[in-house]
Specification:
Rossmann fold, homodimer, globular, alpha/beta
Chain lengths: 357, 357
């Protein structure tokens, strides 16, 4: 890896004036409710006030970037859907028909699709960014998924998506994924970076049966064994050898958003694996990451526990595309509104806790 | 209890044409996502399509009614906040400063406040409905919380709120509560109707310390013992003897909404106790109830388990007012949008599961 890009992804995040967090906590204690009674919604508002360095945390401009790419490992028969679905779904995103489109509309969020390496090139369309690292990755069960050069292209795609989000004054970044075969790549990353077993980390993906899951776990085990010596405890090298173009782009986007002072809402199984790589590469980013949900995909709950994360939602979702994050963003926006718009005890002339009658 | 009102609350719910549920399930299987991958959001959309008897389930008109009343049992020292907070918070609702106001604005929902028996009468204000059953209930640790006549007034308040919601073409009913001392009443109902122990059912409410919680559990035990012989397994009589005016109104509103073909989204600790009474009185309503969240209030998780409910959210909220339900409604609306607006595999020309390439 070129020194320049390694320096870029390990660079620090902006320092913050603690006064915003302190004043947000103080305000929460003054709002007309028992202290703590809004639970995680209070934590979200306080964290966003701190990260945004604002007394009025807000999520008016949410930027969603969905990265699509294919996976050579699909030839091992690890998915219930055929590989051409990656490109077909990318077109569905561009035509407005997918879950993430509907949720983006609900949020009034911007949505762009980045082709980081779908097997067959997509027709030009509004909202499509083309930054291809290849015609899908190589089969990680046989060789490294990508070359150094390909990894660099994929990382650059993530950086650039965040630059566009910042240019549009985004106050939250959501990255989504599309890639038939990518749960296999993410499973391998959980094995490599969290020590999960292949069985613990391998699930149904888009809909494998029990036999399919067992075969997939064998493939994950093979991938892990093949690259273990080469990768050791180098998260970036694991990302290159067993990850995917979209997973690498999500990783660099997560890092660069944090470095740019932009909060990131992490989606489910795939995005969390990207975030895991990002955290291993650059632990300084951790404050900037919100984890949106526990996916129903086998291994995610365990992985989240290992990462000391709980997630806001637990709705048995397992779609990817950023859909879990976009759903959770509805609650984060409500958390901001509650923080900003509720009356204080003094404003409402309501007696406080333990006040005498 | 008059025969008329007993007949009214035990009356049946509308029958439904199964075709709407079947077609909603069929549509979910055709949308461009792996089957089941939107988890509980799919279930919500299908249930609403069935209940609303519509191919396009929607939550455009959400009606929120917050019932406020005082509790004689407050004199036992069971709350961290003084009793006048009930009326002060009701005024806060009317002035737009409370959590439920902010969430209602987020939802574009209607919001009304019903004084079912706050200690001191509230000044007239737009959005205030006055239907008082008394100056707070009697102290249930010493006598029945309400007379038969008072119970009837409170039940009528619930019926009438639903009638107003229907007149405004509501597609979802949310009931909220405000009443210092009402977690004690709800705890007693969980003991009586689910067999929870006083310790299991008694929590911090608005913010008791450990000593306060222990005292409250003693009071709950005393309430339960005092009324056990009189009430037996009669849920309506338990409601009268240990409940509150707002709890009774929520109970009848829940029943009447279901009887009127209007889905109900149940809030947390207090509302679930009302729903429990409603289900015991009229089991026919169960299809019409959605449970919004697991409250952080001690005993709610256990009570929900006993009621075979999971709730959509688990955000450590414990505020009441309908706030947990209003937060969950954001997700239910997203569930409807996903159901109605996503493209099918055929529309998007995406290959389905197990299709050959």
């Amino acid at each position: 890896m070129e020194k320049q890009i390694v320096e870029r992804i390990t660079g620090s995040c902006p320092s913050r004036n603690p006064v915003f967090r302190e004043q947000a906590l103080e305000r929460q204690s003054q709002l007309t409710k028992p202290p703590g009674s809004l639970g995680k919604l209070e934590d979200i508002a306080v964290r966003l006030a701190d990260l945004q360095q604002s007394h009025q945390p807000g999520l008016d401009n949410i930027a969603i970037s969905v990265f699509a790419a294919d996976h050579g490992v699909a030839e091992e028969g690890v998915s219930a859907f055929p590989q051409e679905v990656t490109g077909q779904m990318a077109l569905n995103f561009l035509n407005g028909g997918a879950a993430i489109n509907v949720l983006a509309t609900q949020l009034g969020a911007s949505l762009e699709v980045i082709d980081v390496g779908v097997l067959n090139e997509l027709p030009d369309a509004p909202g499509l960014i083309v930054q291809r690292a290849g015609k899908g990755t190589a089969n990680s069960a046989r060789e490294a998924a990508m070359t150094q050069q390909q990894l660099q292209v994929a990382l650059q795609a993530g950086f650039d998506a965040v630059e566009r989000a910042i240019a549009h004054k985004a106050d939250l970044f959501i990255g989504g994924d599309m890639g038939i075969g990518n749960t296999t790549a993410a499973s391998a990353l959980y094995c490599a970076l969290l020590g999960l077993s292949a069985e613990q980390a391998s699930g149904a993906g888009t809909g494998l049966d029990q036999q399919g899951i067992a075969r997939k776990a064998e493939v994950v085990e093979r991938i892990y064994s093949l690259h273990q010596h080469q990768c050791g405890d180098d998260a970036l090298e694991w990302l290159r050898c067993v990850g995917g173009f979209e997973i690498a782009a999500l990783c660099s986007a997560t890092i660069h958003a944090a470095q740019s002072g932009l909060a990131v809402l992490v989606d489910g199984f795939i995005s969390s694996a990207s975030a895991l790589c990002a955290l291993k590469i650059n632990p300084d980013i951790s404050d900037w990451l919100f984890f949106s949900h526990i996916s129903a995909e086998q291994g995610h709950r365990k992985a989240m526990q290992e990462m000391n994360q709980t997630g806001l939602l637990d709705l048995q979702m397992r779609l990817g595309e950023g859909s879990g994050a976009a759903t959770a963003a509805l609650l984060m926006r409500a958390a901001c509104a509650l923080h900003n718009d509720m009356a204080t005890f003094a404003e409402a002339a309501v007696a406080g806790k333990d006040d005498k009658a």
